[in-house]
Amino acid sequence: xxxxxxxxxxxxxxxxxxxxxxxxxxxxxxxxxxxxxxxxxxxxxxxxxxxxxxxxxxxxxxxxxxxxxxxxxxxxxxxxxxxxxxxxxxxxxxxxxxxxxxxxxxxxxxxxxxxxxxxxxxxxxxxxxxxxxxxxxxxxxxxxxxxxxxxxxxxxxxxxxxxxxxxxxxxxxxxxxxxxxxxxxxxxxxxxxxxxxxxxxxxxxxxxxxxxxxxxxxxxxxxxxxxxxxxxxxxxxxxxxxxxxxxxxxxxxxxxxxxxxxxxxxxxxxxxxxxxxxxxxxxxxxxxxxxxxxxxxxxxxxxxxxxxxxxxxxxxxxxxxxxxxxxxxxxxxxxxxxxxxxxxxxxxxxxxxxxxxxxxxxxxxxxxxxxxxxxxxxxxxxxxxxxxxxxxxxxxxxxxxxxxxxxxxxxxxxxxxxxxxxxxxxxxxxxxxxxxxxxxxxxxxxxxxxxxxxxxxxxxxxxxxxxxxxxxxxxxxxxxxxxxxxxxxxxxxxxxxxxxxxxxxxxxxxxxxxxxxxxxxxxxxxxxxxxxxxxxxxxxxxxxxxxxxxxxxxxxxxxxxxxxxxxxxxxxxxxxxxxxxxx
Length: 583
Hints:
The chain folds into three domains: 8-161, 3-Layer(aba) Sandwich (Rossmann fold); 187-399, Rossmann fold; 489-579, ANL, C-terminal domain (GMP Synthetase, Chain A, domain 3, 2-Layer Sandwich), CATH 3.30.300.30. Helices cover 35% and strands 23% of the residues.
């Protein structure tokens, strides 16, 4: 496809190795890994996979936490022309067996810290021909990870890939049933990256930002003439120019071409941006897409934790030490960071952008994040795996102007539809439909479910929302979560948001339970903060006056722990299974 290689990923990596081999690509503990080192190992592993009989379109599944091994393994699979299938490291053996079997994986690569989950499942996965383990394995046929890499030569296998080829198979969270393998192409990623870049640039530079925050942001820019640039960026004339459609179109086209042409990208390889996504595992697309972006633009340096454990204090230590510029977290991760008692002792002034996604981030939490990072802009992104993933986002720099439940204007074509697919006017709640070149190719081996969600080019998201008077998307809830109680509709999210503000509440999940009188009734499952004791009545009393009477939970369960996914999303189906018995 490209000047350096017919392989999309290798085409960029060859260029980066030539023009920026000593640039830092990853920092993990005491290891500082350069692009040159990483690319050498990536090509060697790709050649080893090829020698093992892994060819174009074959699936290779792997299990690592956010680590250098994840990054190099993923890239090697793509350079070999195969399809990476990252696996959730919190899986139990039965789940490993299901995904490994369903995706038709020919090889399994894993870290031995996950051996208890992986190894009991391997003998029951029929197509696995090769097992590669980082560290000591309990499987006799397993090949040592480092020995496997060393068995390959440091040359590009030159396996052609195109924009229409599948770049990765990401499995959905499976919060409402069996996970589905979502096929995402290289072209879908490039479309999302270029759209996101153009939208983020124009929106941020058109925004009215408080003066002190703006000054702090300009101070961190690596540009000459800051005394002149700052006032220029704040001027109404400049903001008006940035809001013109032609500027967006130019930026999108330029970005799209840069992602595909290393000759355009090479001049910026040395402008490294250090980032962290400590609560977003790479096996989910929200964090995964950053790996492909870094491989194509050559500018990202990932600051990684050695352990999969989320350690707020260590994270802030690394921000200070490495002068990290960008951080992304799910709301649960942000909550832990802003709640750290001695957070103020760390210098976090290097942070210029903070991103939240993977769940609803409350207005109050957004304010706390902006207060903690006074020189940063906050991006609240909405997305779905099937859309690669970002569909909408809102940029905020002023804590006083945050809009509750708004995720900004969509970056893809969007409509709000009723149950028959008819478009609804602004302000009316319905299902959110998306249309874009970033949509998935389909669900692997599931044409029926693919047809259910793709209709005339539109992807039916399953989310409920509406467009406000400014064309911003306001989220309501998941369509299938609505509780019908006595003819009234109750959306769990609005009840959860209120209960979550109780000072003793750590987490809450609202579900509908069978009720002979009302059909369904509202039940709140509540987890108290560590060291706090909650009573059912005080939650009931807290709700009164804050919501309509029919929305107040008729029953409340105080539990020790609410089950959540690796990215902090409440597993509503597991909550129903455990606490959803009839009233």
